[in-house]
Design brief:
Blueprint lengths: L16 H15 L8 H15 L4 H10 L3 H9 L10 H19 L4 E6 L5 H14 L8 E7 L2 H9 L1 E2 L9 H7 E4 L2 E4 L1 H4 L2 E5 L16 E6 L8 H13 L1 E9 L12 E3 L6 E4 L2
Parallel strand pairs: 1-2, 1-7, 2-6, 7-8
Antiparallel strand pairs: 3-5, 4-5, 8-10, 9-10
Helix pairs in contact: 1-3, 2-4, 5-6
């Protein structure tokens, strides 16, 4: 086992590190997703859900089931991935972006298309929230540049939900009524995002722990990257690797937005927080 291997104490037979690693290695080989980057305790809790649902006793039995039932891989990925999100989650951050960051990015970009990447976008609430902010901001902009917003996630089913852009009431709980009325249609108890907002966002399958940026749509750096409440589920080594990839994709003067309890590694001195506790970091060089 390597130094990054999962280590559990007093694991019962069939539920030790090697048994879990076998499941994760199968997923990695089949779909290219490396869940070894996630915190071990979180993985165990989530995998327990599949054991209970299938009435299986341990990881060994689950591994056998997984290899014999092709449809189970989707259920497993859906269980292991974190999809806690809603529109304008943590409103303070979106208000700060609307008031200070986005106008600054418009000034820096000039007539150049503004490029945005939302990494770990789950069902699309975050990139669509940004699209709403940009639409509102550009309504009074005399020469609005093109806006390219990319949302990526490792969960294919979550991305399908994002592309459909139909959400339950709890997903829009923090949307102001005026925005809700302007940007959504209520249909059979669900909120459908209007097409002009929906078409501003492109979605793609991508693993943020991979040491490479998504290849779709962008051939130069991003002006804005959001990766909020994602790295807290990773090991320290994978956090560093992910942050190196993300910060390397930013243009000079661009911004990286992290979650409330996340921060940049100390080894990245070229970034300064826009203002205290905002978790909006500007790349100065």
């Amino acid at each position: 086992m390597t130094e990054n291997s999962l280590v559990f104490k007093s694991s019962p037979p069939g539920r030790n590190a090697d048994d879990l690693a076998q499941v994760l290695d199968y997923v990695k080989g089949l779909r290219g997703l490396d869940f070894n980057a996630y915190q071990p305790d979180s993985l165990r809790r989530r995998l327990e859900l599949r054991l209970v649902a299938l009435n299986l006793p341990d990881y060994q039995a689950y591994s056998r089931y997984l290899t014999k039932n092709g449809q189970e891989i989707e259920a497993l990925i859906d269980t292991l991935t974190i999809k806690v999100s809603r529109f304008f989650r943590n409103p303070f951050v979106f208000e700060a972006m609307a008031a200070f960051l986005l106008p600054r990015l418009l000034a820096v970009a000039g007539s150049e298309p503004i490029r945005v990447w939302c990494a770990g976008c789950a069902r699309g609430e975050e990139p669509y929230s940004l699209a709403i902010l940009f639409q509102n901001l550009l309504a009074n902009h005399p020469a609005a540049p093109p806006i390219f917003i990319l949302g990526t996630d490792i969960d294919e089913q979550a991305l399908k939900t994002a592309q459909a852009a139909v959400y339950p009431e709890e997903a829009v709980a923090e949307v102001k009524k005026a925005v809700l009325d302007r940007c959504f249609s209520l249909e059979h108890g669900q909120y459908r995002l209007h097409e002009e907002i929906k078409k501003m966002v492109t979605f793609a399958l991508h693993d943020v722990t991979a040491a490479a940026a998504p290849t779709i749509g962008v051939f130069s750096g991003y002006h804005l990257i959001l990766c909020r409440n994602v790295q807290i589920y990773f090991s320290r080594e994978i956090q560093r690797r992910a942050m190196t990839t993300l910060t390397g994709c930013l243009d000079k003067g661009g911004a990286l937005v992290l979650g409330e309890v996340e921060t940049l590694p100390e080894a990245l001195p070229d970034f300064v927080e826009m203002f205290p506790h905002s978790r909006i970091f500007i790349k100065e060089n």
